[in-house]
Every structure is written in structure tokens, then in C-alpha cells.
Write a structure and sequence with these properties.
Length: 243
């Protein structure tokens, strides 16, 4: 698709960096803090020598968090020259420019853990099915993949799902489980993304507002005779798919 060549070549300056209103270093640090809150706690039982691949690693903020947390065999790849250049400026190790999809497709039984942050939404449904099947094959027995992706059940989900022109598909917790199971993963969990404002006063107000809004949306579901038991409200969701 031609638009990918145009938009991915300068993805930081036209999307991720532009949307943040901060410079690359400040955005990098903010992303790393979020990954430390949201993703690293999910790796408590992961061996520090595990073969970890960050697919579409962007500026490498997750890789940096992994490496600083003692994971010695974490590598990453991104198709954007601009993003890889930022990663190297930030001192991220083991990050290269390249097509991560092709790399995964030719890496059978190679990884203990594959990470895909804000990436699976960038593929068409057909492409995503092919990718998930290749990812499953790239994992060692018992290996797992962790993805973060927009959650279509979130409040005003269009602000997140449609905020990036390169997004191609949208899922909620139910459809995420459906497609991962259909592609051969044995055990799939979907968790809400971590929501936090670093300003403590604003965070207190945010939690109060979330309680009010949650009640309102649960009431909507109740009015349609549906349960909110398996519905997530966070802008992002985290998918853990076990091989």
C-alpha cells in the first residue's frame, strides 16, 4: 500500500511526535514510564535471558525499559528510518531498521516472547490473520505474544481508533480473543490498558470521572439487556496470547 511508504518514513514527525506536543526525548521518557507501569509487570516470570523481539519497536522506548530492567536478549526492529534514528540517539541497543513482518515470517521457533505495541491495528484483517499465524510459529513452545492496541469499547473510541490515518482494523476484548484463538493460540487474556495522569491532583480527578463515566456506560449496556462483565473501558487493551 503506497500510503505506508509515505506515512511511515517520517512517522515520528507527522504522528507520534506531533500528537504529543513534546520533543523526542521527552516523548521517549514518557513512553518508557508507561511501559514500566503497563507491560513490565506482566513479565515478572520471564527469564532475564529470554529471547524477546519487539516488533515495530518505534523509537525503542519499550526496548530501553526492558534493557534497563535486566533483559539481556531483547531486540527490536522498525520499518521507519526516522524512528530507528531516534532509538539510537536515545542509546537503545539491539535495534535495527527493517521489515519486522518478514523477519517474523522467517523466524520459526525463535522467540520466547514477542511484543507488539500499537502495531496490530495497522494491518487489514487478512494481513493480521497472516501475521498472527506467523507470530505463533515464531514462538518457542510455551512462548507468548503481548500486544497493545486501541480498544473499540473505550469511551469516545474514535478519538483513539481514528486518530491515526494508518490504522486499518479495530477490535474490542471479545474480537481480540476470537482472532487470536482462531489463529492457533491456546490461551488468550485481554487486560485493560493502564490509565494514569502523572500529576497527582489530576489523577484523583480522573479516577472520579472514570467512576462516573463507567457507571453511565454500564447503564447503557444494562438498558440493552447486555452484560458489561467482559467489556473494557480503557482507550487501549493489552492482549496476552500463549502458544
Amino acid at each position: 500500500m503506497r500510503y505506508r511508504q509515505v506515512l511511515y518514513s517520517n512517522y515520528h514527525s507527522t504522528q507520534s511526535g506531533r500528537a504529543s506536543n513534546v520533543d523526542a526525548a521527552a516523548l521517549f521518557d514518557r513512553e518508557k514510564r508507561q511501559f514500566l507501569r503497563e507491560i513490565l509487570p506482566l513479565l515478572d516470570n520471564t527469564n532475564s535471558q529470554a529471547a524477546i523481539f519487539d516488533m515495530g519497536c518505534g523509537s525503542g522506548s519499550l526496548l530501553k525499559a526492558l534493557q534497563e530492567s535486566g533483559f539481556q536478549n531483547a531486540t527490536g526492529m522498525d520499518i521507519s528510518p526516522e524512528q530507528v534514528a531516534i532509538a539510537k540517539q536515545m542509546g537503545v541497543e539491539n535495534v535495527v531498521e527493517g521489515d519486522a513482518l518478514l523477519h517474523v515470517a522467517h523466524s520459526e521457533n525463535s522467540f520466547d516472547l514477542l511484543l507488539g505495541m500499537d502495531i496490530i491495528e495497522h494491518f487489514t484483517k487478512d494481513e493480521l490473520v497472516d501475521l498472527l499465524q506467523n507470530i505463533r510459529k515464531s514462538l518457542k513452545p510455551g512462548g507468548k505474544a503481548i500486544f497493545r492496541t486501541p480498544n473499540l469499547d473505550a469511551f469516545i473510541s474514535s478519538a483513539f481508533a481514528n486518530g491515526d490515518f494508518t490504522h486499518e482494523n479495530y477490535m474490542n476484548a471479545s474480537s481480540a480473543q476470537q482472532v487470536c484463538l482462531a489463529c492457533g493460540f491456546k490461551n488468550v487474556k485481554v487486560l485493560p490498558g493502564v490509565m494514569k495522569i502523572e500529576n497527582p491532583v489530576k489523577e484523583i480527578l480522573r479516577k472520579f470521572a472514570a467512576t462516573v463515566v463507567n457507571f453511565r456506560f454500564k447503564l447503557y449496556l444494562f438498558a440493552t439487556a447486555r452484560s458489561s462483565k467482559n467489556v473494557l473501558w480503557s482507550p487501549n487493551m493489552v492482549i496476552i496470547a500463549q502458544n
